[in-house]
Amino acid sequence: MRVLALAIWTVATVSAIPSAHAQAYDPNYPVCLKVIENFGSERISCTYTSLAQCAETAAGRAAQCIVNPFYASDRPLAGRSYRR
């Protein structure tokens, strides 16, 4: 009886945990491909250097190209510069 109760508790606990995957934005690439998969889940792959390159991969799929919000470019940030 204990084994059955433990099995039911284990199945209930595992099924209650959401199966979310960590989304990693690679800061080395400016463009990401967001792919919509089965049952509404999505996957993000940041391995593209231009929107045109990403668009070729996204063609014919349930996907879209987005700008990487964590892209670390070499140019300085726009804004005020202070002198000492």
Annotate the secondary structure layout.
Elements: H1 2-16, E1 31-36, E2 42-48, H2 51-58, E3 63-67
Antiparallel strand pairs: 1-2, 1-3
Describe the protein in words:
This protein is of the alpha+beta class and about 80 residues long. The protein has helices at about 1-15, 50-60, and strands at about 30-35, 40-50, 65. Strand 1 and strand 2 form a beta hairpin.
H/E element order: HEEHE
Label the structural class: alpha+beta
Beta-strand percent range: 15-25%
Q: What radius of gyration results from the CA coordinates?
A: 21 Å
How many E strands? Answer: 3
Helix content: 25-40%
**Ranges with pLDDT <50 over ≥5 residues?**
16-20
Oligomer: single chain
pLDDT averaged residue by residue: 79
Strand order of the largest sheet: 2-1-3
Gap between N and C termini: 77 Å
Strand count, sense and barrel status of the largest sheet are: 3 strands, antiparallel
Shape: elongated
The tally of helices reads 2
Quick structural overview:
The chain is α+β, with helices and mostly antiparallel strands and 84 residues long.
Features:
84 residues; alpha+beta; three-stranded antiparallel β-sheet; 2 helices; 27% helix; elongated
